[in-house]
Structures are given as structure tokens and as C-alpha cells.
Amino acid sequence: MFLIKSFPSVKQLSHLTSLRVRLTVGIAAMSILGLSGVVTGICWQMQSILVVTHKNNTRYIAGRFPSDVEIYSDMVSLEEGTQRAIDNLSNPQTLLWVKGPQGEILAQSEALKMGMRGKNLVSLTDIPLQPELQRINNRYWLLCATKLVVKGVHLGEFYIAQDITKDQTMFLSIMSSLLLVGLIVTILMTAAIAWYIQNALQPLKRMSQTTKDISPETLGKVQIELENAPSEVKELAQTLQTTLTDLSHAWEDQRQLVSNISHELRTPLTVVSGYLQSTLRRGNNLTDIQREALETASSEAERTIQLLQDLLDLARAENGRMYFHLETVVLNELLTEIEGMVDQYPTPVKISLPDQLVKIKGDKNRLKQVFLNLVDNAVKYSHSSEPILLKLSQEKQQANIQVCDRGVGIPLTHQTRIFERFYRVDEARSRNIGGTGLGLSIVKTLVEGMEGTIKVISQPNQGTTFTILFPVS
């Protein structure tokens, strides 16, 4: 069995780097650091108070013991006086013992003699001179060693072992509780911060949703209204609103300019083209060079007229002035008619029709324009030996028309842009084969104007398939 590791998508990564996540993580991290510092400080302070209190008690015993031994030794022997001093200062939590210069035990607490507590304490050899906390046999002991000098005589070493297990255990329990409380507070605080930041960023999210689907046609209709937003966000929204309004005016002026220029130039160019064609028909005395020049001029004039007509069609569509004469169209008959109209093409065109009739609501002339544009485009980019296929089918409540070729194909990076105006996949090839660069853009406009959709599937050097879907009538 192979395990396939899934990697995060671009969308998931974008969520991880969003402003909301960054603010939440940043503020939560700072809050956690601050809270951790407070908890650590409290624990350290409690530990210091606990240990310092017991250390002071240990130092007090270490300082008092020699004087007690001296007092008792005035009444009894030195050894008995040492034992009495130990018995006087010992308690269940404090164990004392004295070792002679040779390491022999001279005196010790009763609990040590009986072996009830502090096993192995008297055998320790590395007890520090200053009080130090050590864990021995699962208990916490504060150990200290000092020289025992009585009346100027060095009797040996005096050892103190104070059992602070109860206090230390209580401290550790309190510290665990503080850590647990700190963890719970951190989780609640992070959730509260995330909720607050999410609400604080709602105006930006609403502004993003409002502007996400803006198109050139809707620039002037967008209204960015934010209530209860911070002043900085309101200022940003006002700036964006002003920019969108200016863009709308500029876009409208540009469309009007293109429409006016196209309309004004089409008439004189049509006259020029007519005179050129008339001259070619009647010019029997023209030289070959003159005829070639006139034919080139006539061809370019026709191409420019077609370009202007395409621009006018697009301008009308954008301004809502392109009207469709909708009627019931039998696509079987229309494609058969298209097949007859493209007989003169160098590349053969074949059609594939279903047995049943497929009917849609559409403008017959506009549909002819759509299919002729697609066939013309396929012929330009196909090999003359490979036929173009027009295939009609009906899938549920949709009519499916496909225009397939076996030409050069379209790279994947260009497929999302081929319906843009003047966009060409290969500029050099496009100039050689002619065309205005508006054909596919007009096709998309006409198809969508008749409530259809168009999409493309292509592979380089294997061909291209344009698929048009219309609801059946």
C-alpha cells in the first residue's frame, strides 16, 4: 500500500498568511509570553519565600547549637551535653547528627538512632556548607554542614537535615494548578482575541466581497458602504469608491470613443473599398504591380472594415444595444446549412448530427456568425489535410455543439485569455493568417447574449475543441 501525502493548496496557504491569522497569532503569542512571565515570576517568588524561610531556620540552628553544647557540657560530660543539645533542637522535620574527626557518629537525633526517618542521611559525604535543597529517597531535604567548635576545641562536623517535603509538595501542587489555569486562560484568551479580530476585520471582508466581482460593466454601480467601521477603513473605502467612479467614467469614455471612431471610419472606408474594387474590375490597362498594390489596399480596407464592424458589435453589446431576434432554431438544419457555406474552405468540414431534432431559442443570424467564426478560426490554425468536425448532441436539457480541429492547439497558460479582445497566442502566426483578434471575443459575447456558455479544451499539437451549450427549447 502506498501512502500519498497531500500538500496544502494555494488557498489553504493563503488562509494561513491572512491578516486575521497573523494578528491572532501575534497578539496571542505576546499575551502568552506575558502570562507565562507572570506565572513564572509568581512561582519563583513562592519558591524563594519557601526556601529562604527554611534556610534561615537552618542557619539559626547551626548558629545556636555550639552554645547549647557548651551550656550542657558545664553540667554533664561533653558527649552527653552534645546529645542533649541535639535532642533539644530536634523535631519530626529536623534531624541532627555530629561526626567526629575520624567520621564516627558522636551524637544523633533519636529518629536517626531508631531508623525511623532519614535513612542513609548520616552516610552522605557531600553535604554542602550552605543550606541546599536535595531530593533523597523521594523526599525533599534541606541539608547543611558546619564545623563544631566548643570552648576553642574542634569536636568534628555538625550536620542538619530539615525535611520540607510537605511544603515542597504543596508548592509543586500550587505550581501545577497555576500552569493548568494559565493554559485554560491562554486558550480562552486566544479564542477571545480571534473572535475580536474577526469582528474587527469584518469591514475589510465586506469591502473585499463587494469589490471581488467588479467588472467593467459594473464599475459605476458599485457602492461601498461600511457601518461601524474604523476611521482608517472608512477612509480606504472612500478612496476606493472614488477610484472606481473615476475608472467607470474613463471606461465609459473609452467605449464611447471606440464606438464613435468605429462608426465614423466605417463609412469612408467602405467608400474607399468600393472604389478600389471598382478600379480593379474596370482597370484593364493596369500593370501587374499596380494591380497587386490595389488588391493589397482593397484587402486591408476590407480587413479594417471588418475590424470596425467587430468593434461596433462589441460596443453595442456592452452598452446593452445589441438585440437578438429570438426564435426557435433547429440546430440540425442550421449546421447543415453551415456545412454548405464552408465548402470553399481549403480544409474539409464534416458534421455529426443526432437522429432527433435539437431545438433552441436563439437568433439564427447570430448563431451563424458564431459557428462561422469558430470554423474560420479552426481552419486558420489547422492542417489542410485534417478535417474540422462540427458535432451536435443533446445532453438532458442542454444542446451541445462542438467545433473540433486537429491543429496546433493552445497552451494551457493561454486558454483562459483567448476570449479577451485582441489577445493572440502567437502574434507572428496571427499576422500571417490575418484576423482582427476579436473573433473569439465576439463569439463569447453572442453566445452569452443568447443565454449560452462556451468553453475550450486544447492540447498543443493535438488540436482544440470549442464546446457551446444552450438550453433546449
Structural features, described:
The protein has 473 residues and is of the alpha+beta class. The protein has three domains: 153 residues, Beta-Lactamase (2-Layer Sandwich); 88 residues, Helix Hairpins (Orthogonal Bundle), CATH 1.10.287; 145 residues, 2-Layer Sandwich (Heat Shock Protein 90). The chain has 13 helices and twelve strands. The strands form three sheets. Strands 2-1-5-4-3 form a five-stranded antiparallel β-sheet. A five-stranded mixed β-sheet has the order 7-9-10-12-11, covered by helices on one side. Strand 11 and strand 12 form a beta hairpin. Helix 2 packs antiparallel against helix 5 and helix 8 runs parallel beside helix 13. It is rod-shaped and about 155 Å long. It starts with 9 loop residues before the first helix and ends with a strand. The N terminus is likely disordered. It holds the Pfam family HATPase_c. Its EC number is 2.7.13.3. It is found in: Membrane.
Number of domains: 3
The amount of helix comes to 40-55%
Q: Strands of the biggest beta sheet: in what spatial order?
A: 2-1-5-4-3
The profile of the biggest β sheet is: 5 strands, antiparallel
The CATH homologous superfamily of the largest domain: PAS domain
CATH architecture classification of the largest domain:
2-Layer Sandwich
In short:
This is histidine kinase. It is built from 13 helices and twelve strands. The chain has helices spanning 10-16, 19-73, 78-89, 110-114, 165-200, 202-212, 231-282, 288-318, 331-341, 364-380, 412-415, 427-433, 439-449; strands at residues 94-99, 105-108, 132-136, 139-150, 153-163, 327-330, 349-352, 359-362, 388-395, 398-405, 453-459, 463-471.
